[in-house]
Amino acid sequence: MPYKKFEEYNIKVTDDVKNRYKNIIEDLGEDTSREGLIKTPERAAKAMQFLTQGYNQDAANILKGAMFKEEYNDMVIVKDIEFYSLCEHHILPFFGKAHIAYIPNGHIVGLSKLPRIVDVFSRRLQVQERLTHQILDCINDTLKPEGVAVVIEASHMCMQMRGVQKQNSVTTTSGFRGAFENIETRTEFLNLISSKLS
């Protein structure tokens, strides 16, 4: 997704958030009039709007716009979907990969829509556990498949840059609905996302 141009931002929100960032930077002891920081509050305001644009998007409508009748009833997997989000506790990034599978029940969905709904939910203030279930429930409720599975692996800057400062830690969350609650189907999915098919 290309970076938004200036005119696409809400000017009132940009100005308000810019002033708040300016105050924060000054409260931290910096001089917002020095050359390197003059435009930083505005850039940060625009960046924050970009990184939280998921609040203004409807993931279910994205899926509904690309649903097709198809008599395919085997597993469909899109794995290694890169995502970037912001931890709601410290407003620091967490990022990684999402793996999604579903078993159609009369309808399939355009493959690009699955990464798009990952973006919709990750472009919000989040926790990884909620992100996993929002993706899972959106697919389950909208597509109504035989089953859905979501696994997310992520690195959290709130753990790596501050706090316990464990740079190599990875957090994995998962959710399963329908057919994926069956251990054999779940195991097949987990094996497929772990393997390299090339």
Automatic annotation (TrEMBL):
SUPFAM superfamilies: Tetrahydrobiopterin biosynthesis enzymes-like (SSF55620). Residues 18-193 form the GTP cyclohydrolase I domain. It is an enzyme of class 3 (hydrolase). Keywords: GTP-binding, Hydrolase, Metal-binding, Nucleotide-binding, One-carbon metabolism, Zinc. Zn(2+) binds at residues 87, 90, 158. Coiled coil: none annotated. Gene3D superfamilies: 1.10.286.10, 3.30.1130.10. It comes from the Bacteria. Belongs to the GTP cyclohydrolase I family. Homopolymer. PANTHER family: GTP CYCLOHYDROLASE 1 (PTHR11109:SF7), GTP CYCLOHYDROLASE I (PTHR11109). NCBIfam families: folE, PRK09347.1-2, PRK09347.1-3. This is GTP cyclohydrolase 1. It comes from Olleya marilimosa.
